[in-house]
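Standup notes, protein team

Yesterday: finished cleaning the hydrothermal vent metagenome set.
Today: Cytochrome c oxidase subunit IV bacterial aa3 type domain-containing protein structure.
Blockers: none.

Input for Cytochrome c oxidase subunit IV bacterial aa3 type domain-containing protein:
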Amino acid sequence: MSSYEHGKQNIAQHQETYGRVMKITYWSAGLMGVSILFFSMVFAAHMAWIPALVISFITGIIAGLILKMGGAWNATMIGLGILTLVMGFIISAIAGMG
């Protein structure tokens, strides 16, 4: 007879892998969602880029809080917001020269 016993397999590694895949999915979907929101407001709705950035930033922070994504998500949103702000001012300055 078989020595198999139902429910005795160690699934700790499977749970850890599933948790990491879910975290990658949350991060990817969140970053794509915030990016699509920003670009839709700027290019499709013809909104100025600074208000679109503020709305996208606030939406990203709220989404991170709702999904309990932690401080790394907030730091990423702040970093991307600052990067977008700096690049926007540089592009506006270059466009204003011509």
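Follow-up from PR in the comments: The mean pLDDT is 92.
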